Amino acid sequence: MKMRSAVLILTLALAGCGIGRVAAPPSVFDLGLDSRPTPALPARAPLALVFQAVPSLSDTGVIWRVGDSAAPKAYASYRWASPPADLVRQRLTERLSRQGPVLDERVTLQTPQLQVSLSQFEQVFAADGQSSEGRVLLQAVLLSGRSVVGQTRIEARAPAPAQDAQGGVAALRQATDDAADQLAQWLATTPKPAARPGG
């Protein structure tokens, strides 16, 4: 019952109810400039990035939920400037490019290919609604030719400075940068495959 009550209270508080008022245009957010220093990592060879996301992250809604509830919500008066799938792909490209070129597609079969899947990008509240965090979940697979070199699961969490949409956006910005840094570090420590003629 406590979880159900918390969900109801948060839904009413966060939905931006506009009864009796003309709805204002939604506030729009993005991930901001990529200005945070990145870890000192060695240069690497060019790689091709293939990125995909779950269907719910192809919309511009700012998603939140309570705990592990299976009922995600979206703020009524807040939107992302682009779908999270696009924002996260852009941020990964920006940060990974600091170690080496990131391509849209393979130049040859021997060009390493990094396949990344985004499955979570949302603000998650505690059951009592008193705290929340931004959560970003990625799965990555590195291919050389047709062979799997390595794979990893990256989960980044960052506390929200406020229990509202702005706080969730700030937390998701930090969590996205944390996830990108973890991905760059993983690539730097993944053994390099021996070159094989013909892939």
Automatic annotation (TrEMBL):
Domain ABC-type transport auxiliary lipoprotein component: 56-184
Classification via InterPro entries: ABC_trans_aux (IPR005586)
Keywords of this entry: Lipoprotein, Signal
Signal peptide (UniProt feature, chain positions): 1-23
Pfam family, one: ABC_trans_aux
Keyword Nucleotide-binding: no
Superkingdom: Bacteria
Name by which UniProt lists this protein: ABC-type transport auxiliary lipoprotein family protein
Organism ancestry: Bacteria, Pseudomonadati, Pseudomonadota, Betaproteobacteria, Burkholderiales
